[in-house]
């Protein structure tokens, strides 16, 4: 019996041992499955793409999915998992067999592991040695941006963003570290690796990251395209996991932020009576007429679109597996203008698909990007100085009604020329334009040997532009009318082919890390265009504005042409670091363009930058309040090739040169239009930068940069030459401009229980100075303010580029005695045509006369300072953000009033005019004539301070994160306000008055930016 019992016990022990071994084998073979979720401690949101790995086993790793969930198979029964993500503090969490973990990560300012796109590659921010600013994607997602480039305003130190116009679809004027060229000062935009002309076709919601390369060393890899800085945009890619569907929608109402305080009908009539009296003319209005007038017509209100709508819909889908991922989106954007309802509009449709594939265990990578954009726009004339609804609304007399009793548009009896009934002007404004742009990018990357990678990318873009014009029959006044209808049509097709090939080698030898990159890039652009026009339409109706329906004999006109441009580049770069402590990057690029002659076809652009992560040194280890400290220095040269094609050769023109010869037969005529300049060469920008980045007390960040940017061999489209040459000049190198300044960015973030606070402040100072000017005159004249005020800006050595060159106003003559005593050294009257109440102009050079030689530097249109302040807070599901931006130190030349038309209306500032001794020393008398040049001489009287502080955006939202039972990952509702108020001394519509390099800051009636209130919803399934 005992033997049997022992036998049974032995059998049970054997079976138990066998089962235990099987269990051990099973564990060894299958491992434990650890699952869980990861959320943000700041706002309880689910965190995607957080790295989860087994401590001590870095190859046992996974990522959280779009819901913040993870599943990881581990080969042990217990241990520790490490959770890490960009912008988050690392967390270690212990586990036992089959644990289900809930992990909370805390945001941190330690972004040293953040990956930064640097052009043809990426780097960790900790080893970046150039001046690069990153724009947070939340700045693009949490506000209702109309354009992606608007996100730069106030958010990047040293980047000045000024809106060219508030008209829908208008691009902003962007300057990185000041203006240094006559040509377009906008930076180069690189989207998914290829240069694009603008960001208009990019939906802000599609952007994954945005980097601003500010110094020459960072931008040198783009060579000829980097002189004005580079903005690199990467669109969103797919991520492995369940398919994610995002729907985003917002709707807003836009309004004119402020109306200019113009004279009402009674005030207008009395000012006109005074002007006529001062000019010894009969008064146009009797007191009886004035008493009956009331306030009259509010023309600004009549042309305004109250609560003009703005809206956007977007739906995107993303997901994939470990080997195939995709991200696609479709969006619709529609914005009506706050002026001219139905005639100022912008619509954009975008469709985008990104996909990536891995083959051969990641050895071969392939990807495709397809973008299609369709844009429709209609617009009105603005900032013209003469015509346009805005200028007419300001200058049209309030006595005239909108409509006559018979239903026709009223015509003013007092104001003429281009100032017409603005409502009628809008009604008769017809036409619009559109374009369709399709872009495809295909890349393949092969990893071979050890550390080598070969990547080829082909991009093709076709752009189809169309414009339609229609001229109806109208009569606005004696100088603005048509006697025949007409129509026009134009088409342009642009084909762009890009081809990049890059080989790279990455190697790590102990603590030495380096990457060598070499490549070629080519771009070919082909353009064809055709246009036609004809008059005498059978029907005066825009729906029948076809060329075939225009029947006036001999009215048809047509033209067309073609063009080709090529750019070939070779480049290389080496990046090196020792233990992520000592950093070195060197780059060299050679660009060749067919815009230059054989002698200077190629430009050469080198750069070098170094860095030192000082906090990694032994002597810094006991300084606990310094979490990271990096010093940087860089030098480099970039180029600019933006001159007209074939500008280096002598050209011949045919336009308007036909002549008659025998029997009145018209012959084709041609004349030389420009002399050749085979020596024209690349414009170059040399820049030196010294900077520092630090994180202090864990929660404070500091970035400081000091730079000097020298642009030389400026490419001028046409150089002033002596008239005896008998021809125009071709493009030439003529000038040098220096910008130097300092940039500072400060950041702070902190979690107080369930409250998360973040604040970022940045500011920059820039000084612009011309040190060389070419040409026969020694200066370059800027544009006119209007027909009377010529060349209000100039380029002269020792002054800012495009400074305001004006007569100096020294007050108002109060008495005839003052006029009589204002004499030259020889005893002659300096202003013999002046009477009491006229402007006193300073004889600056003391030559006894007031002329062009007395103009002075009255101020600069370039802001000395630009800054931004951004504050955000999160509490549970609530989020709040308020953002301010501003400029300081710039001047604006205000020419909104038509001073050449004495009967035009005026702002209420004219009530402060001189109308007797001692009444005013800043605003001259009113009159119908201007022998003294009060309003025709461009003087400092028209110059105003353009500084401002703008509430750019304020938003409040709430996010629901616990709706998974409804298949909803997150749901955010929000309201926001844009451009709600502006603190400024400027008296015009808007202090943001952009312009060309020599035309910056001249306000001839800029379309004001709207004030916008929006509400939106963003839901993720």
Task: Name the descriptors.
single chain; 22-stranded antiparallel β-barrel; five-stranded mixed β-sheet; mainly beta; 1021 residues; 56 strands; disordered N terminus
Molecular structure report:
This protein is mainly β. About 10% of the residues lie in helices and about 45% in strands. It contains 9 helices and 56 strands. The strands form 13 sheets. The protein has a 22-stranded antiparallel beta barrel. Strand 48 and strand 49 (about 880-890) form a beta hairpin. Helix 7 (about 390-395) runs antiparallel to helix 8 (about 420-430). Mean pLDDT is about 90; it is low at about 1-30.
Summarize the model shown:
With 1021 residues, this protein is mostly beta strands. Helix content is 8%, strand content 47%.
Q: What sort of overall outline do the alpha carbons produce when their principal axes are compared?
A: globular
Strand content: over 45%
Q: Roughly how much helix do the residues carry, as a percent range?
A: under 10%
Gap between N and C termini: 69 Å
Unreliable residue stretches: 1-30
Structural class: mainly beta
Overall radius of gyration: 34 Å
Strand tally: 56
Number of helices: 9
What does the main sheet amount to? Answer: 22 strands, antiparallel, barrel
Question: What would the average pLDDT be, to the nearest integer?
Answer: 88
Blueprint (SSEs and pairs):
Elements: H1 2-30, E1 32-40, E2 51-54, E3 57-63, E4 69-74, E5 79-85, E6 88-95, E7 100-105, E8 115-117, E9 122-124, E10 132-135, H2 138-141, E11 159-163, E12 172-176, E13 188-191, E14 194-196, E15 207-213, H3 216-219, E16 230-235, E17 241-256, H4 265-278, H5 287-293, H6 299-303, E18 308-320, E19 324-336, E20 345-359, E21 364-378, H7 389-395, H8 422-428, E22 432-448, E23 452-471, E24 475-477, E25 480-481, E26 486-509, E27 512-535, E28 557-578, E29 582-593, E30 602-613, E31 626-640, E32 651-653, E33 659-660, E34 666-667, E35 671-674, E36 683-696, E37 700-712, E38 715-716, E39 732-733, E40 735-752, E41 755-773, E42 779-781, E43 793-796, E44 803-806, E45 809-812, H9 816-821, E46 839-841, E47 856-859, E48 865-875, E49 878-888, E50 891-894, E51 943-945, E52 948-960, E53 970-978, E54 982-984, E55 1002-1003, E56 1010-1020
Parallel strand pairs: 1-7, 13-16, 50-55
Antiparallel strand pairs: 1-4, 2-3, 2-5, 5-6, 8-9, 10-15, 11-12, 13-14, 15-16, 17-18, 17-56, 18-19, 19-20, 20-21, 21-22, 22-23, 23-26, 24-25, 26-27, 27-28, 28-29, 29-30, 30-31, 31-36, 32-35, 33-34, 36-37, 37-40, 38-39, 40-41, 41-48, 42-43, 43-44, 44-47, 45-46, 48-49, 49-52, 50-51, 52-53, 52-54, ...
Helix pairs in contact: 7-8
